[in-house]
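seq as requested:
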Amino acid sequence: MRNVMPQSYRFMVTTPHYLASQVGSSILQHGGNAVDAAVAIGAALAVVYPHMTGLGGDSFFMIYSAKQNKVAGLNGSGRAAAAAHPDLFRQQGFTRLPDRGVQSALTVPGTVDAWWEAWSAYGGGKLAWADLLAPALRYAEEGVPISRNVHAWMVRDEALLRADPVLHALYFDSAAASSSSVLKREGAKLAQPMLAESLRAIMEGGRDAFYTGGLMQAMVGAIREDGGYLTEQDFAAHRSEWVEPLAVTYRGLRICQMPPNSQGFALLMMLNMLDRIELARIPRHSAAFYHLMAEVVKRAFRLRDLHLTDPAFHAIPLDRLLSGDLAEELVRDILSPTAAQSDGYASPPSGQDTSYAAVVDEEGNAVSFIQSLYYDFGSAYVAGETGIILQNRGSYFSLDDGHPNVLAPGKRTFHTLMPGMALKEGKPCLLMGTQGGEGQPQTQLSILTGIVDYGCTIQEAISLPRWVYGRTWGEDSDKLRLENRQLGDAAERLKRSGHQVEVVEEWDGIMGQAQGIRISDDGLLSGAADPRGDGSAIGG
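struct tokens:
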């Protein structure tokens, strides 16, 4: 399977759904800049990729302003309800937070405010707010074909979709809530009239419609009636946060990631370790390569899980975690034959319903951004007649008082979202990101090492056989999963070394869907979309 890699000297867009890519391209051709296009893409994805993202989720932006020659991060993750306290759930007999339903919708959705904040600060000024949401509104009203990936998740989540009356009406041929109704087929029209009305309200009223206006009232009224905890005050208090990206140097490139509560620093720890190893000497598809990647990932994840949460509630020793001294110590441990870590590691289960996209415009502005509902179809709960699926991101909190990520009112949870950007001499040379929970830092690691250490193009790097280690897609056990391409005897060698190996399909969806844009020294833009998904890259 091989995707064509479009190239251009003007602009480039890549998203996990071809219609969203077309929207971004159109915005750029009508005078919008990269941020305008990113907002329009985000809104379109909320309609055409509703299992992976939506108005009820969170988002993170990394924005390079060519005019300012500066990279800024925007944290659009929501905070827990004021009523959210561990005792609230312990008293109901919970030992861990519910994964689905209205009680899992514990955090305020941050995506709409992040769109508004990014556009207000960096929009090009030639297009109105309503212009950016208009394509999404049209898709919601008129309908779009159900794509391959959407349909695959509809099949997997049939019971969840059947249980919610709004989702049942959308995804089944029969509007009646009966067991005789059948899922719509791939290619069937998916129109979302309730979501269209919500989009219209946001077009007309901006972010305030969602956080203080009538749309907020409709959502909160439904949440309260159905036994949830988010209130008017929780929505009204929400604001996105501008942050300074973290960065380390890898083979001369400056690799930027979002700071906590994002897990982005885990990738930077991995790169710090690998920067001390001559990786190019290790064949890319060998058992030695996969062993090294697994050991690097385990060590970064152990330290990540000891600390990661909302930094406003728990001090995170980033200076130590990103230090060269720690990297040297961890590499010595990896290379010591008496200290192999190929035994199991209990990582926390995670969801990965996420959509990543990237845009570079003609002026040189660049946006790397990601949106998510957390699990596939989020909480699987629609707030009343708004058509908005609420995220279940709050289910990642712990009920253990001694855990850094313990649930608390107004707290942001440990977040898997991590848009990436690499700089060369202060300017973007690579934008990258992926769907995938635990797989996000690992896939970015695969892309980066593929390009920097093994000489791949951006499309070749995204198409490389991938691995993913840990508990992702809600799995209950840690495994090292390998795609069944160019493996040779690597899987058997790894098993003999003690790894819990599972060989999956050649282009397995468990590896997520990555997108990327590479910018050469002479300004050539190369875009790539993951063959595992429904996306495309468009240059112009």
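The chain has a mean pLDDT of 94.
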